[in-house]
Every structure is written in C-alpha cells, then in structure tokens.
Structure prediction request, 90 residues.
Amino acid sequence: MKLIIAVIQDHVIGELLTELSNNKIRATKLSSTGGFFKKGNTTILIGVEDDKVLEIKNMILNISKNKEYVDEKTANTVMFVLNMNELVRM
Prediction:
C-alpha cells in the first residue's frame, strides 16, 4: 500500500477532486496555506494499492499541468508517495 500526499494549488483542486470522484478514488482533503507555495492550497491524502499509484499520479499531474501556472517559480502540485503498512476503514 502507498500513501499519496499531494499539495495542490487551489485553482487546480476542483477539477482534480471531480476526476478522483468520477474514478471512485477516495481522498481526504485538508485546507493548507504557506509552505511550498506561500499561497492558499489544498493537501489531499490518498491511500491506495501499489498497482493504482501510477494511474493516480498521472491523473494528478495531467490535471495540474493543464492549468496555467500562477507564476514561473511556483508549481501547481507537489506530490509525495510513501510506503504504508496498513489502511483501516471503519
């Protein structure tokens, strides 16, 4: 299992959450500010099986790169993919 943590600029998040939902991918949305972008952004957490990671990464990156950049020095998305030992849903 993997945990995808993606920090995404606010102008990208709406389309991304719709795409994830349409593909039945569960995500937890956290509002966040500062850090990488020094602007309003959203952090999403996605726990997935290893074989889904590439599909989800590509989905996030494709939507992010099809949006205009706020400026040349700022990315629309920063993503971390971490190993996860267990996922529990109740």
